[in-house]
Each structure stands twice: as structure tokens, then as C-alpha cells.
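re: that complex we talked abt at group meeting.

here r the seqs, copy pasted straight from the sheet so there may be weird spacing, ignore it
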Amino acid sequence: MANDPIKQFEINTIVPLENVAGLDLSFTNSSLFMVATVATASAFLYFGSANRGLVPGRLQSMAEMSYEFVASMLRDAAGSQGMRFFPFVFSLFMFVLFANLFGMFPYFFTVTSHIIVTFALAMLVIGTVIIYGFMKHGLKFLGLFVPEGVPGVLVPLVVAIEVISFLSRPISLSVRLFANMLAGHITLKVFAGFVVSLGALGAVGIGGAILPLIMVVAMTALEFLVSFLQAYVFAVLTCMYLNDALHPSH
Amino acid sequence: MFVTAALAASTEAAQEGGGAFPPFDTSSYASQLFWLAITFGFFYWFIAKVISPRIGEILETRQDRIAGDLDMARDLQEKADEAHAAYEQELAQARTTAGEIGQKARDKAKAEAEAERQKVEGELASKLEEAESRIASIREKAMAEVGSIATDTTAAIVDQLVGTSVTKAELTKAVGAVRR
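got the structure back, here u go
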């Protein structure tokens, strides 16, 4: 089943740690690519900032660009107070971006194509929002659910809607990233499978295989865009949710 | 009951290799969460402790340097402006000084010329006066002589015509009355 488009998402144990306190904590291909993602991103940022040049080189320029990209995103969304969350948002953005881009290599595993990973990251964001919101504002944080200037009769309805929308945030945040990565990789694999199976049919098949081949090339470019875009969206939404924790009165 | 049965069936299918969709295979969740916590935890720590301060410092240093350079440029500009103003002022001063000197020289020359003129005029006037007084004295002298000549002539005429001599005092008196 080399053509099975689902096979690329399978998790294979590399170092079995099958019964640690009753849990299977084996080091899998997923774990391997998490380590690779973190190692690559860390190395990029570390060596990018190692020279501390007044005039940046290429690598330093890229590292600074990613830093300023996230910093301005956070400052725009959550104001200068939001900058205390900068390391959090920056590490989220870089982690998701590098995990997505790693998935673009053939035969590589995509960490973010598993709902549990994206959901864990989303819960981390929402958990930070809730904990910081209550720590900073106490019960006033609940004012987040009561928009100002709503007529008294509508308040219960609006509050219900706000609560539901707040609760659906971690779901939408995680499913968006997960579904994009999953669907993109499945589509790529399916079209690539067409190329192979049509190519095996002889002269006519090879002619027919050109169309899906062009598709695959175009989709690959699109997937690179999606990889970046989803990391960006994840980071932007994180910034906006953190803004709620900082300024719940809006 | 159904749930556990379904879960058992799905895990069974997963163990058989095929059926279950890997992202929804709960058996791998613990491992994924565990390794995500480790890797992302390390990454967060690394960003917060090393990367973020470092890049922040680089950017700040650059900002400071640019701001410092701009300040220096502004200072130099100010100094240049000051020097220019001082130069302008000196130039204006020099101009007024030159004007004053010129005016003074002109005034002095004028005064000297005036003094010279007055002196010459005075000399001329005194010479004129002298000449006039001399003329007047000559005239008086001449007139006086005219009187004595007239007296003499009258005495001679009287002597010739009348044949009597008249005293000199009467003659002078008569001549004087006629001449008046």
C-alpha cells in the first residue's frame, strides 16, 4: 500500500518506552520530528543571533525579521503590555512554522498534522489566557463575556454566545491548523499517486499523467504558502486571545 | 458499553495496522503529548532565556547607535549653523567698522579743509583791511595836502588880484568852508 495517502500520518515507535507509569511514552517518528523541529529552529535563531552584528548578515537578517514580524504582530494586537508574552508567541510561531515546513520534505513526518499536537498547543494558549486573565483581573475577567452597551434583555443571549465562542476557540484554533496540514498532505499524496499509476499505463498514461504532475507542482508551492500562513494565523489568533486576557473590557 | 466496545474495536483495528485513522488513534496521544511537552518546553525556555534577549539586545543596540548618530549629526549641524552665524556677525561688524573709519577720515579731511579755508580767508581779510586802511590814510593825507595846496593857491590868487595879504588862519577857514 505505498499509495495509501494515510500512511504518511502513521506513528511508528522508534525507541519503545511502553509502560512508564502505565503510559506509552515511546519515542516515535513524531517525537523525532518534534526534536528535529526544535533543534533546527533553535539552531537557526541561535546562529542567526550569534554574531550580534550591527549590520546583519543573511542569517541574522532572517532571524531578526522573524523576531520583528512576531513582535509587531503582538504589539499591534495586544499593545506594549502584550510584549511580556513575546517569548511564548514567538516560540509558538517558530515551532508551528518549522513543523509545517519540515512536513514539506518528502518522507518526512508532519508534527502538526496530528490533532492532539495542535489541540495541546491551542489549549496552552487558551489556558494561558484564562490563568493570566484571572490572575490579572480577578472576576473582572468575566466581563469579557459581557460586551458594553448591550440592552439588558439581550444580555443573557449575548453572554451565552460569547461563552460558546470562547469555548470554541481552542477547537477552531487546533482544527484549522490540523485540517489544513492533513488535507494538504493527503491531496498532494493523492495527486502524486495519480502520476505514478497513470505513468504505469504506457504512452497514453504518461501523457495523461502530466496534468496531475503540474497539479502536484502547483500544490507544493501552495502548501509552502499554507505552511507559513497557518503558522501566521495561529500566532495572530494567539495574540488576539492574549489581548482578551490583558484587556478584557473590550 | 457501546463506547468501550467501539474503542476496543478501533484499537484492535489499529493494532492490525490499517483501519484507524492515525490522527484519531488515541493510543499515540500520551507519547505525542509527552514529547511535545518536552520539546516545546525546551524551545520556550530557549527562546525566553537566550534568543529573545539576544535579538532584542541586537536590535536595541542598533536603535541606540542610529539614534546616537542622528544626535551627533544634529549637534554638528547646530555647530555649523553657529559658526555660520558668528561669521555673519563678524562680517557685519567689520563692515560697520570699515564704514566708521571711512566716515571719520572723511570728516577729518572735511574739517581740515574747512580750517584751512577759514585761515586763508582770515589772512585774506586782514590783508584786505590793511590795504584798505593804507588806502584810507593815503587818501586822507592826499586830501590834507589838497587843503594846504588850496590855501596856498588861494593866498597867491588873493595876493595877485587884491594885493593884500590875508592871514593864514582866515585862508584855511575860507577854503574849508568852500570845500564843504
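couple things i noticed - The radius of gyration of chain B is 69 Å. The helical segments of chain B are 2-16, 29-161, 168-179.
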